[in-house]
Amino acid sequence: MQRERSRSEGPPTLTSSQTSSTSPTRPLPAVQLRVPTDEDAHAWHEVFADPDVMEFLGGPAELSAYEEFTARQRMHDAQLGYCLWTLLDAQGTVIGFTGAQPWPREKEWGPVGEIEIGWRLARTAWGQGYASAAALATLERVREAGVPHVVAMIDARNTRSVAVAERLGMALAQEFTTPGGNPGRRYALSLRGE
């Protein structure tokens, strides 16, 4: 993985073309991660408008939600050194996001105080290894930022996201029911190399 950052060039971009630990003969695709821009709010709104993508996330959201969301991620990056980065393929096309952020303190449930990693991809990018490649890059970046462990909160019915968490080596730490009545799983992973 390479990390490129130049103040004159704008937000950081991470690139990764690692090999999957669960499938050493199948290399993962190259990905680029960058701090979300104002324009990325529009791109996210477009790629996440697909009901399949948002099936376990409450359905498609309005553009204003992504405008607020990208602004919050820029703040996280400035304050913490990590955020939910915009995910681009090798051609520079926005295909989603991945990264880490603190679990929102205003929520009355969940792992308050924990750092959650997550990923969301455009439907056209599913099944190609992008989520795993980007999540591996995320783990490296948050480890460098001094985060000792991370969690992933996943709807238990979302078998694709469950598979990504398990490929990362995350352990199932808890099964629960969300306030909306859906089955959930909390996965955890130590980044201390113990």
| Mean residue pLDDT | 87
Terminal CA distance: 22 Å
Instruction: Please state the structural category.
Output: alpha+beta
The number of helical runs is: 4
Question: How are the elements arranged and paired?
Answer:
Layout: E1 2-4, E2 13-16, E3 31-34, H1 38-47, H2 63-80, E4 84-88, E5 94-102, E6 115-121, H3 130-144, E7 149-155, H4 159-167, E8 171-177, E9 183-190
Antiparallel strand pairs: 1-2, 2-3, 3-4, 4-5, 5-6, 7-9, 8-9
Helix pairs in contact: 1-2
Summarize it.
This protein is an alpha+beta fold.
Describe this structure in words.
A six-stranded antiparallel sheet has the order 1-2-3-4-5-6, sandwiched between helices. A three-stranded antiparallel sheet has the order 7-9-8, covered by helices on one side. By secondary structure, the protein is an alpha+beta fold. 27% of the residues lie in helices and 28% in strands. The N terminus is likely disordered.
Output the keywords.
27% helix; 6-stranded antiparallel β-sheet; globular; 4 helices; alpha+beta; 194 residues
